[in-house]
Amino acid sequence: MSANNSKSARSVKAPGRPARTLAILLISIVAFGALALVQGATSFKLGLDLRGGTSVTLQPRVSDGGKVTSAAIDQAVGIIRQRVNSLGVAESEVSAQGTGANRQIIISVPGETGRRIVELVGQTAELRFRQVLAEGAGNAGSLLSAVDTKTAAPSTLPAGITPALNSAYAALDCSLPENRQGGGGDTPDAAIVSCSRDGISKYILAPAEVLGNQVSKASAAIDQQGASGWYVMLDFNGEGTKKFGEMTTRVTGLASPQNQAAIVLDGLVVSAPRINEAINSGSAQITGSFTQVEASDLANVLKYGALPLAFDRGEVQQVSPTLGASQLHAGLLAGALGLLLVILYSMIYYKGLGLVSVGSLLVAAAIVVLAFLLLGKWIGFTLTLAGIAGAIVAIGITADSFIVYFERLRDEVRDGRSLRTAVETGWARARHTVIVADSVSLIASIVLYFFAVGGVRGFAFTLGLTTIVDLFVVFFFTKPLVTLLARIPFYAEGRALSGFSSKSLGIAPSASTQSASKEA
Predict the structure, then answer these.
(1) Is the pLDDT at 96 greater than 80, yes or no?
(2) Is 94 found in the same domain as 60?
(3) What is the pTM of this model?
(4) Quick check: is 366 in a domain?
(5) 68, 48, 66: which is closest to 58 by C-alpha?
(6) DSSP letter at 193?
(7) What is d(CA 264, CA 127) in angstroms, rounded to the nearest whole number?
């Protein structure tokens, strides 16, 4: 019997090198703290409810013969939400309000960059590729000379340009910002007059030959040679590849400017490059002296497709963080009280063993804080009231993991095993329960994150992150620390305040002495 017990103990005992594990963990925390300082991640990025931001209302615009449908509004909400999400975990909110034709889209974006993001996600992204028929300065006059104007002979105008187009060209002054709003009059099957985005040039453009819905992929890139800076790469689908190939084949070899293909976004010319050869590969580049931000924004807009409706921007207002700040103080107070109660419970009930739970909570808190700081720097993660709630709930999850292990450990000691043996046998039986419990929380967090919107996603994200941190801390801090403490006589001998005394374990002293002699 004695030999079998010894064999059983050897089979579950796997102490490893707990001191080295703890040292590596603590060095890693210090290293990530230094990384946060080096990268300037020294403060949390706060969400709309905590630091304020921008809220805008988009009102659907009814085009000629068209109508606003609930399906189109829902589709627009989905596209805008994808664009917002592509910018990171920004805790932005996109929702439709109202009923029928009166439905509006409300976008709320936190922080100082809110206005730029609102402008990005609200673009209709009507992309067209058109042949350039005429090009001139932004404030140029008629294409006809004074003599030709008297005769008004259509034959004196460049091919494809009607007197009506010439008159519209002469009347358009692209140097005026109000004439560069875009969107209006960009009918794909008709020739149009348009400005460049900066107003330096204006154009007469042929009907569109390639449309935005024929773009299958868009991404921002930088010219490694440094010649053109940042640009946007486009890949076309089968129909787009065919039409773009036909267009570039036809204009190659024509005189300038009719050998140019204008890239028109929401009625304004982004770029009008000269076509030197046919492009049949299905890929093209949009160039135009982009900055990295401009190229990335344009790629994001195009990547998720055109909005099914055009929108007029309604009320734009700044959101004050005052209410959120008071709620934050209340939430942090509640979290601090909850943490204090967990610590008091651990110290009163587990006594010396409670130091392990206190240390584990502090290590978990340090890792979570560093994660929030670095994720804010790397992916734009913002902390909101809902996110803070998720982190507070995680305190209970972390405490549950300690309790499961501690209770199993104490049960093993009650069964007569020495503390050093009980540490391993208790861990072998407790870790499965800890993993299963945390897995349930993690699955719930993932489901919430992908199927919820707005603040609920923030709650799910922080809950999932802190659950992963809990698992990490239990395996790489709590268990190794308990292994080390089991080697200290104060704990191994079951002294009064160790948490393993006969009184703490609820067993009679005589039984304890008998068990100890048996174990020996």
Answers:
(1) yes
(2) yes
(3) 0.59
(4) yes
(5) 68
(6) E
(7) 6
